[in-house]
Amino acid sequence: MAGDLELEKPIVELRRKISELKEFTNNTEVDLSSEIEKLENRLERLEKEIYDNLKPWDRVQIARHPERPTSMDYISRLFTDFFECHGDRYYGDDEAIVAGIAKFLGLPVTVIGHQRGKDTKENIRRNFGMPHPEGYRKALRLMKQAEKFKRPIICFIDTKGAYPGKAAEERGQSEAIARNLFEMAGIKVPIVCIVIGEGGSGGALALGVGDHIHMLENSTYSVISPEGAAAILWKDASLAKKAAETMKITAPDLKQLGVIDEIIPEPKGGAHRDVDLQAIEISEALKTSLKTLASLTEEELIDQRYQKYKQIGEYSFLNEYIGVN
How many CA atoms lie within 13 A of 294 on its CB side? Predict the structure, then answer.
């Protein structure tokens, strides 16, 4: 099957064998039910062994799976009456960012997300999910609108990073990202951010300053890609697997470090295995977050957000070094 990962090959082969035996049984009078049952039990054990012991690099590969659900996949399942808005009112529209208004269980919300393509043609149109400055300015325009009409903001993060090309730099890529960071810190409505795939560098962070930050179990969130880190640290991008293990970019690591709030579980093998089930898991996380944040005043919301980011980076070894117990 196209898109299968290296770690999934034994599982794929076993599934194929089970399928062949079932088809043979249906087309003949030979009863192979006992053999099929044994293989299905073996498959269950194999899936548990592999998926319960994923390494950081395995999670990177799952986050990059070509069939992994995108922002629009979740928007269509989680929200009703979605109305997409276009343009930044300065330069143009960037299709690497989708943004609009919708209803979540009847509650008006603003939804913003990175959007990559499902095939080569769409990837080119959406610039492989790497936004230009106008994408971030469109996002900020919708955030300020949400603040005006007191709508909660929901951000889906899924990008390798902001587009690093000459045109993007000429139009103020760094300023656009910095402006989003500055403005999001003071937005007076709840902001819930969910990393659904790759969360790369400032391109991800420009939609990531929220009150609650959730990550899908097999997503990643980092300042640089493992390949980029390996090229800088060891002058060899082929050591990306080693870099992934040392960078602490997976959901369990970032939860332990206090960078994110909650891990949203995925179906065995990744979100692409069952998008509807994954949407249900995200919905539950959103309901809990929005209910919690709705009870806060504007002042409490901003103060809590400030304290959240102030505390990130206070590690035990630093406290020991300066003599704090």
Answer: 11
Half-sphere exposure of 308 (CA within 13 A, CB side): 17
pLDDT confidence bin for 2, thresholds 50/70/90: very low
User: How many angstroms from the chain centroid is the CA of residue 74?
Assistant: 11
Distance (Å, whole) CA 132 – CA 135: 5
d(CA 40, CA 310): 50
> Are 152 and 296 spatial neighbours (Cβ–Cβ below 8 Å)?
no
pLDDT per residue as tens digits for the range 140-158:
999 999 999 999 999 999 9
Task: Please write the tens of the pLDDT for every residue from 70-109.
Answer: 999 999 999 999 999 999 999 999 999 999 999 999 999 9
75: Cβ–Cβ under 8 A, 6 or more apart, which residues? 82, 98, 102, 111, 113, 156
Q: For the full predicted model, state whether its pTM sits above 0.70.
A: yes
Sign of CA dihedral 206, 173, 87, 146: positive
Q: What is the mean pLDDT of residues 44-53?
A: 72
Q: Which of 13-27, 180-194, 298-312 has the lowest mean pLDDT?
A: 13-27
The two structure tokens encoding residue 290: 């929005």
Q: How confident is the model at residue 46 (pLDDT cuts 50, 70, 90)?
A: confident
